[in-house]
Protein backbone atom coordinates (compact mmCIF):
# COMPACT_ATOMS: atom_id res chain seq x y z
CA UNK A 1 0.00 0.00 0.00
CA UNK A 2 1.06 1.65 -0.41
CA UNK A 3 2.22 -0.75 0.79
CA UNK A 4 -0.15 0.23 -1.01
CA UNK A 5 -3.12 -1.94 -2.04
CA UNK A 6 -3.41 -2.04 -5.89
CA UNK A 7 -6.68 -2.57 -7.69
CA UNK A 8 -5.29 -5.27 -9.99
CA UNK A 9 -3.97 -7.23 -7.06
CA UNK A 10 -4.85 -6.22 -3.53
CA UNK A 11 -2.62 -3.23 -2.84
CA UNK A 12 -3.14 0.29 -4.13
CA UNK A 13 -2.03 3.87 -3.75
CA UNK A 14 -3.08 7.37 -4.67
CA UNK A 15 -2.23 11.03 -5.02
CA UNK A 16 -3.49 13.87 -2.90
CA UNK A 17 -4.34 17.53 -2.86
CA UNK A 18 -3.04 20.01 -0.36
CA UNK A 19 -2.53 19.32 3.32
CA UNK A 20 -1.84 22.39 5.50
CA UNK A 21 1.35 21.00 6.99
CA UNK A 22 4.01 18.84 5.34
CA UNK A 23 5.38 17.76 8.71
CA UNK A 24 5.09 14.11 9.65
CA UNK A 25 2.75 13.21 12.46
CA UNK A 26 4.31 11.38 15.40
CA UNK A 27 2.92 7.87 14.89
CA UNK A 28 2.76 5.13 17.51
CA UNK A 29 5.49 2.46 17.39
CA UNK A 30 3.14 0.09 15.57
CA UNK A 31 -0.05 0.20 13.50
CA UNK A 32 -1.87 -3.08 12.86
CA UNK A 33 -4.91 -3.67 10.65
CA UNK A 34 -7.17 -6.59 9.89
CA UNK A 35 -7.92 -6.70 6.15
CA UNK A 36 -11.38 -7.71 4.89
CA UNK A 37 -12.63 -8.51 1.39
CA UNK A 38 -16.43 -8.45 1.07
CA UNK A 39 -16.68 -8.74 4.85
CA UNK A 40 -14.40 -11.77 5.17
CA UNK A 41 -11.03 -11.39 6.84
CA UNK A 42 -8.24 -12.18 4.38
CA UNK A 43 -5.16 -11.05 6.26
CA UNK A 44 -3.30 -8.35 8.16
CA UNK A 45 -1.28 -5.22 7.40
CA UNK A 46 1.31 -4.17 10.01
CA UNK A 47 3.56 -1.10 10.08
CA UNK A 48 6.39 -0.81 12.61
CA UNK A 49 7.96 2.63 13.19
CA UNK A 50 11.42 3.44 14.54
CA UNK A 51 13.34 6.67 15.00
CA UNK A 52 11.91 10.20 15.07
CA UNK A 53 11.26 13.11 12.70
CA UNK A 54 14.98 13.52 12.07
CA UNK A 55 15.36 9.93 10.87
CA UNK A 56 12.32 7.66 10.70
CA UNK A 57 12.12 4.11 9.32
CA UNK A 58 8.91 2.22 8.62
CA UNK A 59 8.79 -1.50 8.05
CA UNK A 60 5.56 -2.75 6.47
CA UNK A 61 4.41 -6.38 6.31
CA UNK A 62 1.22 -7.43 4.54
CA UNK A 63 0.00 -11.02 4.42
CA UNK A 64 -3.25 -12.05 2.75
CA UNK A 65 -4.95 -15.21 1.57
CA UNK A 66 -8.17 -15.06 -0.48
CA UNK A 67 -10.24 -18.25 -0.46
CA UNK A 68 -13.18 -19.64 -2.36
CA UNK A 69 -14.78 -21.76 0.31
CA UNK A 70 -11.92 -23.57 2.04
CA UNK A 71 -9.64 -23.38 -1.02
CA UNK A 72 -6.96 -20.64 -1.19
CA UNK A 73 -7.07 -19.02 -4.63
CA UNK A 74 -4.77 -16.05 -4.08
CA UNK A 75 -1.86 -15.58 -1.69
CA UNK A 76 -0.23 -12.20 -1.26
CA UNK A 77 2.79 -11.05 0.74
CA UNK A 78 4.28 -7.57 0.62
CA UNK A 79 7.18 -6.08 2.57
CA UNK A 80 8.51 -2.53 2.43
CA UNK A 81 11.19 -0.50 4.18
CA UNK A 82 10.47 3.23 3.94
CA UNK A 83 12.79 5.98 5.21
CA UNK A 84 12.18 9.66 5.94
CA UNK A 85 14.47 12.39 7.33
CA UNK A 86 13.38 15.80 8.56
CA UNK A 87 9.93 15.37 7.04
CA UNK A 88 11.39 14.50 3.63
CA UNK A 89 11.15 11.21 1.80
CA UNK A 90 14.51 9.42 1.52
CA UNK A 91 13.93 5.95 0.10
CA UNK A 92 11.74 2.86 -0.10
CA UNK A 93 12.43 -0.74 -1.09
CA UNK A 94 9.66 -3.30 -1.59
CA UNK A 95 9.28 -6.99 -2.35
CA UNK A 96 5.92 -8.46 -3.35
CA UNK A 97 4.93 -12.09 -3.76
CA UNK A 98 1.59 -12.48 -5.54
CA UNK A 99 0.70 -16.15 -5.94
CA UNK A 100 4.37 -17.05 -6.29
CA UNK A 101 5.29 -14.21 -8.67
CA UNK A 102 7.94 -12.08 -6.96
CA UNK A 103 8.46 -8.46 -7.94
CA UNK A 104 10.73 -5.80 -6.49
CA UNK A 105 10.59 -2.01 -6.63
CA UNK A 106 12.55 0.86 -5.12
CA UNK A 107 12.73 4.63 -5.04
CA UNK A 108 15.30 7.10 -3.76
CA UNK A 109 15.34 10.87 -3.46
CA UNK A 110 18.11 12.33 -5.61
CA UNK A 111 19.19 15.87 -6.42
CA UNK A 112 16.11 17.41 -8.04
CA UNK A 113 14.15 14.20 -8.66
CA UNK A 114 13.15 10.82 -7.24
CA UNK A 115 14.68 7.80 -8.98
CA UNK A 116 12.01 5.08 -9.24
CA UNK A 117 12.62 1.50 -10.37
CA UNK A 118 9.90 -1.11 -10.79
CA UNK A 119 9.09 -4.27 -12.73
CA UNK A 120 8.63 -2.28 -15.95
CA UNK A 121 11.88 -0.31 -15.64
CA UNK A 122 13.28 2.95 -14.31
CA UNK A 123 11.74 6.43 -14.30
CA UNK A 124 12.07 9.81 -12.63
CA UNK A 125 9.46 11.37 -10.39
CA UNK A 126 9.25 14.99 -9.24
CA UNK A 127 11.64 16.05 -6.49
CA UNK A 128 8.85 16.05 -3.90
CA UNK A 129 7.36 12.70 -4.93
CA UNK A 130 6.67 10.15 -2.20
CA UNK A 131 5.07 6.73 -1.83
CA UNK A 132 1.46 6.56 -0.73
CA UNK A 133 1.61 4.21 2.21
CA UNK A 134 -1.55 5.75 3.72
CA UNK A 135 -0.16 6.31 7.23
CA UNK A 136 1.00 9.89 6.56
CA UNK A 137 -1.64 12.51 5.69
CA UNK A 138 1.12 15.03 4.94
CA UNK A 139 1.97 13.02 1.82
CA UNK A 140 -1.35 13.98 0.28
CA UNK A 141 0.21 17.33 -0.66
CA UNK A 142 2.83 15.65 -2.87
CA UNK A 143 2.92 13.80 -6.20
CA UNK A 144 2.72 10.15 -5.15
CA UNK A 145 3.82 6.87 -6.65
CA UNK A 146 2.83 3.24 -6.24
CA UNK A 147 5.65 1.69 -4.25
CA UNK A 148 4.73 -1.85 -5.35
CA UNK A 149 4.65 -1.17 -9.09
CA UNK A 150 7.31 1.56 -9.07
CA UNK A 151 5.39 4.16 -11.09
CA UNK A 152 3.74 7.53 -10.65
CA UNK A 153 -0.01 7.54 -10.08
CA UNK A 154 -2.81 9.40 -11.81
CA UNK A 155 -5.36 9.90 -9.06
CA UNK A 156 -6.72 12.79 -7.06
CA UNK A 157 -7.51 13.02 -3.38
CA UNK A 158 -10.06 15.23 -1.68
CA UNK A 159 -10.16 16.07 1.99
CA UNK A 160 -13.84 15.40 2.68
CA UNK A 161 -13.52 16.51 6.30
CA UNK A 162 -10.89 16.30 9.05
CA UNK A 163 -9.76 12.70 9.27
CA UNK A 164 -11.33 11.59 5.97
CA UNK A 165 -9.58 11.59 2.59
CA UNK A 166 -11.22 10.37 -0.62
CA UNK A 167 -8.95 9.00 -3.37
CA UNK A 168 -10.28 8.58 -6.90
CA UNK A 169 -8.86 7.80 -10.33
CA UNK A 170 -6.72 4.69 -10.71
CA UNK A 171 -7.96 3.78 -7.24
CA UNK A 172 -11.21 4.12 -5.34
CA UNK A 173 -10.24 4.46 -1.69
CA UNK A 174 -11.35 6.31 1.43
CA UNK A 175 -8.74 6.72 4.18
CA UNK A 176 -9.65 7.63 7.76
CA UNK A 177 -7.52 9.03 10.60
CA UNK A 178 -8.08 9.40 14.33
CA UNK A 179 -7.98 12.66 16.31
CA UNK A 180 -4.18 12.35 16.63
CA UNK A 181 -3.75 12.05 12.88
CA UNK A 182 -2.88 8.36 12.94
CA UNK A 183 -4.20 6.06 10.21
CA UNK A 184 -7.39 4.47 11.50
CA UNK A 185 -9.17 2.67 8.64
CA UNK A 186 -9.49 2.24 4.89
CA UNK A 187 -12.40 1.42 2.61
CA UNK A 188 -12.04 0.74 -1.08
CA UNK A 189 -13.30 -1.04 -4.16
CA UNK A 190 -11.18 -3.54 -6.08
CA UNK A 191 -11.14 -3.92 -9.84
CA UNK A 192 -13.51 -6.90 -9.70
CA UNK A 193 -16.04 -4.83 -7.75
CA UNK A 194 -15.35 -6.48 -4.40
CA UNK A 195 -15.11 -4.34 -1.28
CA UNK A 196 -11.84 -3.89 0.61
CA UNK A 197 -11.74 -2.73 4.23
CA UNK A 198 -9.02 -2.13 6.80
CA UNK A 199 -9.85 -2.05 10.51
CA UNK A 200 -7.20 -1.14 13.06
CA UNK A 201 -6.55 -3.77 15.69
Poorly predicted parts: 1-23
Mean of residue pLDDT values: 86
**Tally of contiguous helical segments:** 0
Order of strands, main sheet, comes to 8-7-6-5-4-3-2-1-16-15-14-13-12
Determine the structural class based on helices, strands and strand pairing: mainly beta
- CA gyration radius, whole angstroms: 16 Å
Which sheet architecture does the biggest sheet show? 13 strands, antiparallel
Helix content: under 10%
Describe the protein in words.
- The protein is mostly beta strands and 201 residues long.
- Helices cover 0% and strands 59% of the residues.
- It has no helices and 16 strands.
- The chain has strands at 30-37, 40-52, 55-68, 71-85, 88-98, 101-109, 114-118, 121-125, 130-131, 144-146, 151-152, 155-161, 164-169, 172-177, 183-189, 195-200.
- A 13-stranded antiparallel beta sheet has the order 8-7-6-5-4-3-2-1-16-15-14-13-12, with no helix packed on it.
- A hairpin with a 5-residue loop joins strand 15 and strand 16 (195-200).
- The protein is globular and about 50 Å long.
- The relative contact order is 0.24.
- Mean pLDDT is 86; it is low at 1-23.
Structural features:
201 residues; mainly beta; 13-stranded antiparallel β-sheet; three-stranded mixed β-sheet; 16 strands; disordered N terminus
Protein topology:
Layout: E1 30-37, E2 40-52, E3 55-68, E4 71-85, E5 88-98, E6 101-109, E7 114-118, E8 121-125, E9 130-131, E10 144-146, E11 151-152, E12 155-161, E13 164-169, E14 172-177, E15 183-189, E16 195-200
Parallel strand pairs: 9-10
Antiparallel strand pairs: 1-2, 1-16, 2-3, 3-4, 4-5, 5-6, 6-7, 7-8, 10-11, 12-13, 13-14, 14-15, 15-16
